C-alpha cells in the first residue's frame, strides 16, 4: 500500500493536502487521508495479503489514465514470483526483517526518483489497480475482470527488485513517450 500511495502522491492523482506523513521502513512516506481511497486500498491490500500467502498472485499493476479520454499514460508493474516450495519446507528460510525492509525502502526510493524523469501528467488522471492471479480464482464481489491496459507508444524503465523468504518482486514503469522528437 505504501508504494501505491507513493505513486498516487508523486504523480498528483490526488491533491497533496489529502496525504499525511508517516514513518515506515526508516523513511517518511505519504499516505492518503481520503476516507474512500483509504478504504479501497485497505480492501485491496487485505485481499492481496491473502492471495500472496496462498501464492496465487503473479502481478500487481497501477494504471494511470487520462480522465478526459481514458488513454493509459503510465503502467507501474510489480511482477511477483512465489516459491511455492517454501511453504512446504519444514525448516523456515532465513531472511531478516531488516534486510527485507531495506529492499522495500530502496524500491520506494526508486519510485520517488523515477518520477523526476517521467513526463508531466498535464491532464486530470484516475488510477486503476490490476491484480493478475491464477486462472481459476473466483473474482471477489465488487471486483471485475479487465484487460491489461497497456500504454501505447511507451518507454519502459526497470526498477529494483526485492525478495522476501517466499516472494520475489520485480518492478517497472511504462510511460507514454512525448509526441515530440
Give the topology.
Layout: H1 2-10, E1 19-24, E2 27-32, H2 35-53, E3 57-66, E4 72-82, H3 97-115, E5 125-133, E6 154-163, E7 167-176
Antiparallel strand pairs: 1-2, 3-4, 3-5, 4-7, 6-7
End-to-end separation in angstroms reads 36 Å
List the secondary-structure elements in sequence, H or E: HEEHEEHEEE
Oligomer: single chain
The 3D shape can be described as globular
Helix content: 25-40%
Structural class: alpha+beta
Radius of gyration: 17 Å
Number of H/I helices: 3
Unreliable spans? none
Total beta strands: 7
Mean pLDDT: 82
Biggest sheet overview: 5 strands, antiparallel
Could you tell me the strand content as a percent range? Answer: 25-35%
Q: Major sheet: order of its strands?
A: 5-3-4-7-6
Your description of this structure?
- With 181 residues, this protein is of the alpha+beta class.
- Helix 1 (2-10) runs parallel beside helix 3.
- 26% of the residues lie in helices and 34% in strands.
- A 5-stranded antiparallel sheet has the order 5-3-4-7-6. It has a two-stranded antiparallel ribbon with strand order 1-2.
- The mean pLDDT is 82.
- The protein is globular, with a radius of gyration of 17 Å.
